[in-house]
Amino acid sequence: MEVELEKTLLRKVGEAIHRFKMIRDGDRVAVALSGGKDSATMLEALLLLQKRAPIDFTVTAFTVEQGKFLSPIHPIGEYLKARGIPWTYFRDNPSLQLLEDQPDHGCDLCSRYRRRAVYEIAADLGCNVIAFGHTADDFCEALLRNTMFTGKLSSLPPITHSRNGDYRLIRPLCFVTEEITTAYAAACGVPVVPCGCSQRTGTVRRALRDIFSELEREHPHLKETMLSAMGNVDTGRLLDPRFLDLEGETAPQEMFPIVSEA
Ligand code: SF4
């Protein structure tokens, strides 16, 4: 394992946890393992941080079976067992029934079923925090997708709460790019079990990924810049009246705002 890679990963995950108060003393964290490299990297990072953090928290992992894995999931279980990491494999019967009844159901329905299953598992495990492996790439893609296709300037929440307030939902990889998770998961030798859906990426997602890889040839820090932008919102230069000083009640900013370059 390359020391620098691990250091970078832990610095970025640590920054997210600290900045958004993701994990607190006494928390019981359930890590959603999807079978892919991102959530596997997140689990490793949280286990390492658990040993170093000045606060006490527990970490356990789980995987929801919705009938979409392309190969058997047990290599993951064996890998975790060999490392002494608690893991729960949950076959979600309603999701399996959905797949049988409506094989072409979309992501909305699928994720609604998954969310219900995830809450059920977290309750069984006695956890109050659920960690998801969305990466910096997901945050950047979501920002562009929402801006261009849903008319909303938003990305993903780094921290949020379940509707009934029972669970804190966190995304500790919000500053970690997939370049890092790919390299880290490979260096750890984590078994990756692909999901059928990951191989039929939608056209919008593919287009956005193409835009990123094209631009990143010239601007390799593009995603870091976008992440900084998401943490540095200039509401006075957007078109939402809720955030504009329509009556000039606050100190004047600029008489002639400069129209920004392309
Ligand atoms: S990509 Fe597949 S597994 Fe993921 S939410 Fe959509 S249908 Fe479900």
Entry summary:
The chain has 262 residues and is of the alpha/beta class. It has helices at 3-19, 37-52, 74-82, 93-101, 107-125, 136-150, 178-188, 203-218, 222-230, and strands at 27-32, 57-65, 87-91, 129-131, 159-161, 168-170.
List the helices and strands and how they pair.
Blueprint: H1 3-19, E1 27-32, H2 37-52, E2 57-65, H3 74-82, E3 87-91, H4 93-101, H5 107-125, E4 129-131, H6 136-150, E5 159-161, E6 168-170, H7 178-188, H8 203-218, H9 222-230
Parallel strand pairs: 1-2, 1-4, 2-3, 4-6
Antiparallel strand pairs: 5-6
The protein binds iron/sulfur cluster.
Give average pLDDT, whole number.
92
CATH superfamily: HUPs
CATH topology: Rossmann fold
Number of strands: 6
User: Into which percentage range does the β-strand content fall?
Assistant: 5-15%
What is the CA-atom radius of gyration, in angstroms? 20 Å
**So how many helices?**
9
What sort of overall outline do the alpha carbons produce when their principal axes are compared?
Answer: globular
CA(first)-CA(last) distance: 42 Å
| Small molecules (ligands, ions, cofactors) in the structure | iron/sulfur cluster
